[in-house]
Amino acid sequence: MESLYEILDHFFGLDPVHRQLLVGSALAVGGILAYLLLRRKPVKSIPVGEGWWGAGEKPQSEDESIRPFTVETSDKEIEDLHGRIDGSRYTDPLEGSAFQYGFNSTYLKKVVSYWKNEFDWKKQVAVLNKYPHYKTKIEGLDVHFIHVRPTSRPNQRVLPIMLVHGWPGSFYEFYKILPILTENQGGLVFEVICPSIPGYGFSEAPHKQGFNSLAAARIFHTLMERLGFSQYYLQGGDWGALITTNMAQMKPQNVKGLHVNMIITNRNFKTLLTIILGPYLPSLVGLTQEDVRRLFPFFEKNVWEMLRESGYMHIQATKPDTAGCGLNDSPVGLAAYILEKFSTWTHTKYKDLDDGGLERKYTLDDLLTNVMIYWTTRSIVPSMRFYKENLKGDFDKRVDASVAVLVPSGLAAFPEELIHCPKAWAVTKYHNIYSYTSMPRGGHFAAFEEPQLLADDIFQFVRKVEKC
């Protein structure tokens, strides 16, 4: 790799004196600009706003009751699934292609055979009902959530926390971390509220255009207030990271702390300066050696990889209903579309394996339970629409893009996350970072894949905030 000086020589033919002057000037200007960006007085919150996403006109009043809900199934539902599976058609994969072209159909046949002949949906429904489920009407939508209270023990401090999932996940992603969070850990324990994003799983889909992460954030604040909480912690990954970040920006007085395992920042001058100088002068731009390892070469490890992995996003951000028609009609197509993400987003090298590495971190029962939540609720299309609603305009010009997160923040950087965000970038968005952890292993679906690691990081973050 050429050094920075060699690159300058190549493009500008500078002698050593002028070369050093140019680099010094660039660093000085960059430092001043970065300082000014960080010193700007942040706007403290974003507008709460209001919305109505139900069918038809908004009524004068809304039923605010909280109703118990039970996940159910039937023989007819299972028979329909099996009939559709039997009618599926497959295309043979290219020789030696593994998961490079998407979900390998040879392995898909094995998954589908297990799905029909061994997977017990009734048993998994009982697993889902292990925790108490509820629904309540907010802004015209039936919002589904589970509410898990810890066992009452003497001398333990109970703190409320909301966990928010993303796509193509569901509330079920948190079933392995729930027992850890609700078990006394050194006198500290959580009361967990885990909602389904409207349009996902058992939450009603919006009937009107425009439902984005800001609307979800407002609805989830209303949910917490309806449950009687005035202050609470938040945790999220994927869309859940954006929604909980918006919640912290919207009502910081209600959020005791925010923990995310996908770190979202805006493009700015400091990011550009880091990319340019990071490989040569990492400490000058605030990068650690771990940051350098994860980031560079930047285009190979970030830009090109993201381009390879973001085709789904362009479809869902433009014409979700078109692709969604086939996925909503074919259980095999739906499984391939969803499970391919649980392969590649867990570890990018899994695409070189004939089975996509799916069973290295997950069981087929767990993976197919998540797929069944989408299948039985017919929620794949509205879940895909969430991309269009959030990305239909310039994301950097949204109201939340210019508002810093001022609440205590804990950031968990998993090594196989889609894009690595160093702390040097994170501080431009999250201005009150209590902990930034470079996690030893794990990918995009942290709670599903590494529940103990994620729980440990949540506990250490909250202890710092609570000073206990």
UniProtKB/TrEMBL annotation:
<dbReference type="GO" id="GO:0033961">
    <property type="term" value="F:cis-stilbene-oxide hydrolase activity"/>
</dbReference>
<keyword id="KW-0443">Lipid metabolism</keyword>
<keyword id="KW-0058">Aromatic hydrocarbons catabolism</keyword>
<keyword id="KW-0492">Microsome</keyword>
<protein>
    <recommendedName>
        <fullName>Epoxide hydrolase</fullName>
        <ecNumber>3.3.2.9</ecNumber>
    </recommendedName>
</protein>
<keyword id="KW-0378">Hydrolase</keyword>
<dbReference type="InterPro" id="IPR000639">
    <property type="entry name" value="Epox_hydrolase-like"/>
</dbReference>
<comment type="function">
    <text>Biotransformation enzyme that catalyzes the hydrolysis of arene and aliphatic epoxides to less reactive and more water soluble dihydrodiols by the trans addition of water.</text>
</comment>
<dbReference type="GO" id="GO:0005789">
    <property type="term" value="C:endoplasmic reticulum membrane"/>
</dbReference>
<feature type="transmembrane region" description="Helical">
    <location>
        <begin position="20"/>
        <end position="38"/>
    </location>
</feature>
<keyword id="KW-0472">Membrane</keyword>
<keyword id="KW-0488">Methylation</keyword>
<dbReference type="Pfam" id="PF06441">
    <property type="entry name" value="EHN"/>
</dbReference>
<feature type="active site" description="Nucleophile">
    <location>
        <position position="238"/>
    </location>
</feature>
<keyword id="KW-0812">Transmembrane</keyword>
<keyword id="KW-0216">Detoxification</keyword>
<dbReference type="InterPro" id="IPR016292">
    <property type="entry name" value="Epoxide_hydrolase"/>
</dbReference>
<dbReference type="GO" id="GO:0009636">
    <property type="term" value="P:response to toxic substance"/>
</dbReference>
<dbReference type="InterPro" id="IPR029058">
    <property type="entry name" value="AB_hydrolase_fold"/>
</dbReference>
<feature type="domain" description="Epoxide hydrolase N-terminal">
    <location>
        <begin position="66"/>
        <end position="174"/>
    </location>
</feature>
<dbReference type="GO" id="GO:0019369">
    <property type="term" value="P:arachidonate metabolic process"/>
</dbReference>
<keyword id="KW-0256">Endoplasmic reticulum</keyword>
<feature type="active site" description="Proton donor">
    <location>
        <position position="387"/>
    </location>
</feature>
<keyword id="KW-1133">Transmembrane helix</keyword>
<comment type="similarity">
    <text>Belongs to the peptidase S33 family.</text>
</comment>
<dbReference type="GO" id="GO:0097176">
    <property type="term" value="P:epoxide metabolic process"/>
</dbReference>
<feature type="active site" description="Proton acceptor">
    <location>
        <position position="444"/>
    </location>
</feature>
<dbReference type="InterPro" id="IPR010497">
    <property type="entry name" value="Epoxide_hydro_N"/>
</dbReference>
